[in-house]
Specification:
By secondary structure, this protein is α/β, with parallel strands linked by helices. Helix content is 33%, strand content 12%. Strands 1, 2, 3, 4, 5, 6, 7, 8, 9, 10 and 11 form an 11-stranded mixed sheet that branches. A 4-stranded antiparallel sheet has the order 12-13-14-15, covered by helices on one side. The protein is globular, with a radius of gyration of 27 Å.
Length: 642
Amino acid sequence: MRYSLNYLRRDYLPNFALKFNLTNATLSAFGLLVAIALPALTPAKADVSQTERPNFLVILADDLGWADLGVMGSQIRTPNLDALAARGMLMSNFYVAPTCAPTRAMLLTGLSSHEAGLGTQHQQQAESQKGAIAYGGQLHDGVVTLSEALGDSGYQTMISGKWHIGHDDTQAPHRRGFQRSFILREGGASHFEDMLEINPVELPFYFEDGQPVEKLPAGFYSTTNYTDKMLEFLDQRDRSKPFFSYLAYTAPHDPLQVPDDWLEAYRGVFDAGPEAVRARRMVALRDKGLFPEGADIPPPLALPPLVPGRKKPWSERSSEERRIDARPVEIYAAMVEILDLNIGRVLDYLATQGELDNTYVIFMSDNGASAVTPLNYPGTSREWLHTERKMDPSDAGRMGSHTFISAEWAAVLNGPNRLFKAMITEGGIRTPLIIAGPRVPAGRIAHAPGHVSDIAPSLYQLANIDAATLPLYADKPKPRGISLVPLWQGAQNAPRPPIVMELFGNMMVRDGDWKLLRLLPPFSTGDPELFDLKSDPGETIDLVETHPEIATRLLADYDKFAEQVGVIAPAPPLERSIRGVYVGKCGWDCEARFLLIEILIHSVGRWVFLALVLGFVASIVGFGIRLVRRRRQVIAIGGDAR
């Protein structure tokens, strides 16, 4: 089947967005104001027959910031996702894991990441965790996947995009319930046909229906081609059966890359700098009721002056420095718009097939915006990066380059949320979730907390599947998440069990408006912190000393969770080199700075350094004392002290 290539035009707006009369300009200016008006303008649809089981389309973005969609007040054009939110519901407090693979495991099992085998990322196990099933870095046969349960119940199941939860063939999609599949097995790669690896120890492999794909087609671009494959699978399916479609994009994960036609799409949009752009987003978020008036936002992560590559304030940078520093976020924004356009293609297809009204469409990200640099990846050295990749700013966004988001811009993409990907703070684990489908009230914003492990039990309820009686679950754990269907169908916020997560030795518990977390150095102290997220969603005021009884209760919730799922503290603790924050070439002075920082970071190193300094000072003082004594002796005998 051939599809129109109109979507490649930057002025193209798919029919899905147009049918809601939502243009780019309207969406950017008014966001959900238009969404709220839609129910009055659009005739109500009849309920889908209870005997007609719904379809499911789950769309996952990769490293998308919480504040990046137009519906959230962003400058990035996302008309199709904005229209989807207008047609359905936006969940503003939805939680995922701090990194991608644990999120994907929880999504497809309804379990904790530990129970699913992804207590940590592949190749990131501490010595104490090696050999444990909970930390195998992939799914295992002791759990049931959403695709297996739906497939066993008569659904057609298909995936296109990133897998990242099974490096062995036994845990590949075609072995875990997906009847059709086109996947990148690893966590990231070039977005083009060159198939370049994201790091030297994780070579990318593509598979279609379990068979290796040796070469990608000319002109391959990840977001576009993952969409092409999903449309192909949808077109070839048995129309008499419902479907479960899992579209797992790799955008906007680094390397930030776009086709040449998109390189200038956002030129100049972010020239005002991160502080000004973030302030504009905060005005929009407050206007939409997504951030409380009077609440503080956390400052962006500031590096100490000693760190090489530390940035001056935006106003003090030269025009050339500002141009270079804004370029990555321009590429990132173009990637997000391309993502939106391709989502529009799928929604258009379902609409033309008459199936959109009976399809639940769920969109979210796997974690918050990333501030990870290429040097944070396993096995990546500065020499390898500058030899194997185009790191000149003039090549940003092109094939062969590795462009990435800096910490100062990650703070913008996450809006008011603290820190970024890999952190247990709101910036790492909070994503907007959009749900649209039968009986989902249009234009509603739900502030009730939800969790990625809730997706599987929710889809089971909508498909009339009872995990307790399904033979697949006979000797395997049932989902620990709860069904969100009552919320999705208009119920008011209902009490739920605490949301508990752990990754890399960091932990969090959210119960109602309260959140307890523990974040290890260097990003925090490793001591428990307590926040009231209703009044302080930016996590700026630690209340652990003023409400010790709440902290104690939430710590008990975590201890219970840790025992149930088999949490193993990383020992020795996982550490990332401070050298990764600067990806430029490093001379002797740069290396000396990093060496000094590494000494000061480690407690033993600090004492050794202090001892050396004190020893040096003592020797200087001793030498001075000896000189003074000698001078006095010479004077005493009438000699010349010169």
